[in-house]
Amino acid sequence: MNDILKIGKYEFNSRLIVGSGKYPSFQSTKDATLASGSELITVAIRRVNITNPNEENLLDYFKDTKVKLLPNSAGCFTAADTITTFRLMYEATGIDLIKLEVIGDGEKTLYPDVIESIKACEVLKKEGFTILAYTNDDPIIAKRLEDAGADAVMPLAAPIGSGLGIQNRYNIAFIKDAVKVPVIVDAGVGCASDASIAMELGADGVLTNTAIAGAQNPALMAKAMKYAIEAGRMSYKAGRIPKKPYASASSPKIGLVEF
Predict the structure, then answer these.
(1) 3-class state of residue 242 by DSSP
(2) Does any domain span residue 250?
(3) Euclidean distance between the first and the last CA atom of the chain, given in angstroms as a whole number
(4) Which residues neighbour 150 within 8 Å (Cβ) at sequence distance 6 or greater?
C-alpha cells in the first residue's frame, strides 16, 4: 500500500514510531525496533548517550540500518532548557528532526507544559528544525502548535507509560479536524489493539515505547504493533459502516422462500 507519511521535509513508509527507553540493552532496543518495521526511534538526549564516542552509543547500533533517530527533550521543564538542549544536540550530531517535549508535571502525570512548548516551537522552527510536538489532547493547543511551526502534533492518549489505551477518542478526532499537519498519538498505548484503534480514529501515526519495551517478548510485541498500525490504517481508509441502535439483517427480505 503506497501510503507515505510526510512530516515536514521527511517521508516514511511506516506510521509507527518507537521509543528507546526501558530496554535492558542497546542490542535489545535494536532487535525490537527492527521487528517493528519503524523508521524512527525517539531517544531522550538528556538521558541516553548519542554524542559521546568514548561511551556505548545508541547511534552505533543503528548506523547500518534505515532507522532515523528522533531526539526528544524529555527532562526539560522550560522553553529555554529545551531550546539549549536541541541546539547542543544539533551541533554534535547535525540531526534536525526532533520531538519537542516540555514537561509541566514531572512527578505524577508527565503532562506537557503547553505554553512553554509553544514558545520553544516558535524559536526552534525559525532555526530550521523539523518539529514533532508532544501535547495534551486539546484541539485548540494543537492548532496553536501548528501555527507556531510544528510539523506534526503528538497528543497523548493517556498518561505516559500508563498502558491505559485510548482514553480520549473524541479529543483525538477533534484534533485531527483542527490541524492540517500529521497527528501522531503519543503515550498511553498498552497493546496492539490500542494502536489499531488510534489509527481507525484517523491518526496519522502512533508512537509507543513502554508497550513494547515492557512486554514479556518485546520483539514479538513490536511486530504485533507493526501489523496493528497497518490494519488500523487500512480500516480507516476503507470507511467503517454507520453505527445503528438496532439489528440489521445481512440478507435481503425480498425473495424469501415461502413455507
Answers:
(1) coil
(2) no
(3) 49
(4) 100, 121, 125, 131, 132, 133, 181
**Options 30, 99, 119, 226, the catalytic residue:** 99
Is 256 inside a domain boundary? no
Q: Which of 102, 99, 31, 35 is nearest to 69 (CA)?
A: 99
How far is Cα 253 from Cα 247, in angstroms, rounded to an integer? 14
Alpha carbons 97 and 10: distance in angstroms, whole number: 9
At residue 66, the pLDDT reads: 92
Q: Does the residue 67 lie in any domain?
A: yes
How far does Cα 130 stand from its chain's mean position? 15
Q: Could you tell me if 18 and 39 are in contact, meaning their C-beta atoms sit under 8 angstroms apart? A: no
CATH number, domain of 215, equals 3.20.20.70
Query: 200-251, pLDDT tens digit by residue?
Result: 999 999 999 999 999 999 999 999 999 999 999 999 999 988 888 888 777 7
How many independent structural domains does the chain possess? Answer: 1
CA–CA gap between residue 91 and residue 94 (Å, rounded): 6
Q: What residues make up the domain containing 172?
A: 5-238
Q: Copy the grid coordinates of residue 148.
A: 507556531
Q: Would you state the torsion angle of the CA atoms of residues 124, 68, 155, 241, taken in this order, to the nearest 10 degrees?
A: 140
Judge whether 251 lies within some domain: no
**Annotated catalytic residue 66:** no
CB distance 236 to 185 below 8 Å: no
Least Cα distance to 165 among 193, 197, 188 occurs for: 188
